[in-house]
Amino acid sequence: MKFATKAIHAGQHPDPTTGAVMTPIYQTSTYWQKSPGEHKGYEYSRGTNPTRKALEDCIAALENGKYGLAFSSGMAATDTVLRLLKPGDEVITGNDLYGGSYRIFTKVFEKFGIRFHFLDLSKPSIIKEHSNANTKLVWVETPTNPTMQIIDIEAVAKEAKAAGALLVVDNTFASPYLQNPLDLGADIVMHSVTKYIGGHSDVVMGALITNEETLYKELFFYYNAVGGTPGPQDSFLVLRGIKTLHLRMKAHCENGRQVAAYLKKHPRIEKIYWPGFEDHPNHEVAKKQMRDFGGMISIVLKDASLQDTFEVASRFKVFSLAESLGGVESLLNHPATMTHGSIPKEVREKVGVVDNLLRLSVGVEDIEDLLEDLEQALG
Ligand code: P1T
Q1: Which residues in the chain show pLDDT less than 70?
Q2: Where along the chain do the CATH 3.90.1150.10 domains lie?
């Protein structure tokens, strides 16, 4: 099956009881057993629920994976991956990451004796230089949040394998429509489903996808044992959202292309980050591993203080100033004080997350209205 057909049908079958074409919301915490252990495959909804299972199978299919697991947030999915580790283990990761990922690494798991190396993974050979017998995981975000670095997944997968480490790719910014890391050698794909997959800014959710059965069983153990799993209502909403993922992504990419072209020429913009530009340092890698360049764009305002940047951010009328991304509506974010506020200033500034950087999540509204909003806010 191809992408759009999978988005609409994968994991979903007419309900065996009523024939309902849409997967019902199985609003139940528990399931009847004929005698202990004799049941229809469902025991207790922390571990399994039919609405969630349909969603997990659908997301897995979109990532060309065999196994999918849904979580109550992207961070709950990340937490579950990190539980595969033990004290003394080391993780290699990028130098530009979602602030919450940086926070869980440094403020939660370092406390349990796990060491994180934040490196420039746009040079994959750097993994060799920093790996040792304790290196168990390589964690990659691509495109990165918010400076849109592109990391060569295939090259990093080879380096991770040589180091004896698992490769996890946070595919949130690309979505499965633009990029499938399992096909490029990743062991696990992670998503903040909250973003493009959900697509409507009405659900917080995460997901993990893998092709490796033993890894799936291990992840499932922590998923059920720890219990950061989503309920059936949210699972239903995301299943519904996914049905238009391919249509939404095409529109995000097209609007993204036009907004990027407009901003690149704007006199108030000092720097713009979007992997579709030929002069983006990793444009060739983006062309190789992505099907298009997406709707995420970051800009640095010319000669703007923090106050000036706040002032510009507050002028938008169609773009909403808010955390998050990937919804049908356009959003604007100030990473330094919002999504990346938990990263120390000197750490974030090293990779360009400066006080006058704004991040745009270009939605699927009419392009004329988006350009007009940018014109009035920047003017
Ligand atoms: O918000 P949550 O669903 O828990 O997902 C966390 C997460 C993980 N990975 C990436 C790349 C992300 O961007 C996020 C969440 N990011 C935002 C809320 C944001 O505005 O950047």
Answers
A1: none
A2: 245-378
